[in-house]
Design goal:
Elements: E1 2-8, H1 10-18, H2 20-33, E2 39-43, H3 46-55, H4 62-65, E3 67-68, E4 75-78, H5 80-91, H6 95-98, H7 104-109, H8 125-144, E5 148-154
Antiparallel strand pairs: 1-2, 1-5, 3-4, 4-5
Helix pairs in contact: 1-2, 5-8
Length: 155
């Protein structure tokens, strides 16, 4: 199960909310339609990031904080306002503070997806660090452009 974000205009977001099939087609073609469009591919790190953020007192639920488009739970809209709000919150939370909450034993006990947390692997937080930096960069750039986003959740 992976999560990715794609920057869209407010008009594209409105169209996506009205027509989920258009949104799915758009996401398949966005790289060709808009080369260099900033996006954020979090891979399977999203649940680990949710855990770290929650432990740091900054609650974020990727699958609850967006607005679900359609009925299958794979596509969500994030408004300009929600992007700007989260961008501000993420800018105030550097990785160095977030990583202090990394606890592979607790994450394993709580079955935090993808359940790969190994206390013996000192490099493991780097996986989450890369995803966090991608997320912060995406939200920051998207907020500065006063854009919205589509988030896709793939099984």
């Amino acid at each position: 199960m992976v999560i990715s974000f794609t920057r869209v205009t407010p008009e594209e977001l409105e169209r996506a909310e009205k027509d989920p099939e258009w949104a799915r087609d758009f996401l398949w073609q966005v790289d060709e339609l808009r080369p260099g469009n900033p996006g954020a591919y979090l891979d399977k790190a999203w649940a680990g990031l949710e855990f770290l953020l929650g432990e740091a007192g900054e609650t974020l639920e990727f699958l609850m904080d967006g607005y679900q488009i359609g009925d299958d739970g794979t596509l969500f809209s994030w408004s300009v306002e929600s992007i700007q709000s989260l961008a501000k919150r993420l800018r105030a939370l550097p990785w160095e503070r977030l990583v202090t909450h990394y606890d592979p034993v607790q994450m394993t006990e709580e079955e935090i997806y993808p359940n790969i947390w190994d206390p013996e692997d000192e490099d493991e937080p780097e996986y989450l660090k890369g995803a966090y930096e991608t997320l912060v960069s995406f939200f920051d750039a998207t907020a500065r452009l006063e854009s919205a986003a589509l988030m896709s959740f793939s099984f």
